[in-house]
Design a protein that fits this description.
Oligomer: single chain
Number of helices: 3
Shape: globular
Strand content: 15-25%
Strand order of the largest sheet: 3-4-5
Structural class: alpha+beta
């Protein structure tokens, strides 16, 4: 990827926050990695949680303890698509699929596919959503 695309896609502090061991400064991500981390951050943030940006984030927490009927999964996937389209202008062609056939009955696997607008690069993010907990926790195996 050239520097022109990196400038458009931007760079930001890496999420989850890390320290660069060679410099002792906060690690930075850029390009498509920055976009992926932003998508994850939007999903992890409850609307109203950031008091300086009260409209940032979504309302996924309200789906905790929900029934996993096709109707509820469709509503949830539509909300995820809408929130990402509103809050992450660097992506388009957002597709959200929710898999409830995981071996764990308390977890939905949310597959998000999108296109990075500037580079026309297809990307995806697999997001575990735990039904029996109001917090979404990232497993050690999950990687951004």
């Amino acid at each position: 990827m050239n520097n022109e695309n990196n400038n458009f896609l931007g760079s930001s502090m890496k999420f989850p926050i890390q320290v660069n061991p060679s410099t002792g400064r906060f690690a930075v991500s850029s390009g498509e990695q920055s976009v992926k981390e932003s998508v994850y951050l939007i999903l992890m943030t409850n609307r109203g949680e950031r008091w300086l940006l009260p409209d940032f984030g979504g309302t996924l927490v309200r789906y905790a303890f929900m029934d996993t009927s096709l109707t509820m999964l469709t509503i949830m996937s539509n909300e995820i698509r809408r929130v990402l389209a509103e809050q992450e202008p660097r992506i388009g062609d957002i597709d959200v699929e929710i898999d409830r056939s995981d071996e764990r009955a308390d977890c939905l696997v949310v597959n998000i596919r999108y296109m990075v607008r500037e580079t026309n690069t297809p990307e995806n993010l697999v997001f575990p959503f735990y039904l029996n907990n109001s917090e979404v926790v990232m497993d050690d195996e999950d990687e951004l």
